[in-house]
Sequence to fold (107 residues):
Amino acid sequence: MAAPCTENNHKQGKLEFVLDVPFPSSREASIALQSLSPDREPRKGGISKELTVSGCTLSVSWRADEARILRVSVGSFMDHLSLVMETMEAFGPPVSVTTQTVSSTMT
Fold:
């Protein structure tokens, strides 16, 4: 979902885009955040991206000087998000972090 243009951003000539991605659990939202956070924008200026988790929702907001830069950043992020979601789906829900006991029997 795109965020409305705020008065402050309009005066600065900034474009803003906000995306909320719901996950089945807060654990999965946190895993997505950890997987996607290391990806910094390659360009120093002109764009900023912020990722946060609230409950089961991953929120991402971008602010950019130019539509082209914003489009490339959002497109790249969506590709990475798709890969993270496909990977989580392939491996199933996350296992609890609790210690598991492995028992073995000797014959």
Notes: The chain has a mean pLDDT of 82.
